[in-house]
Amino acid sequence: MKKKVVDLPRVQRALAALDKLVAENPDRFGGEGPRWADNLEELDRLTMSAPAKQRVLEYRQRLRERGYRVQTINMPPEAHERLRRLAQQTNLAYGELVAVALEKYEKEATP
Known about the structure:
Elements: H1 8-24, H2 26-29, H3 40-47, H4 52-65, H5 77-90, H6 94-109
């Protein structure tokens, strides 16, 4: 026995109930107000995602605008593993963790 994919009578009853609800409350459902089409530019930006390469470039640009700089640090595998684990535990980016560590080191090293 095949299962129905759509229960058409149930859908028709639901649509009829919605129609009745709208007819009984025209002020709530038919009034003037913001509509989805008023925000087409934002909807396009959210739904029509840019290619990954473009998103990465825009992300890096936003970081530069906030004053972030790219820095390469060579570290032993054990230190990288600790950094990875701390980033996962604290939910911070590697750069933010390094900044926190530097602040803490400076506070402790300064007499």
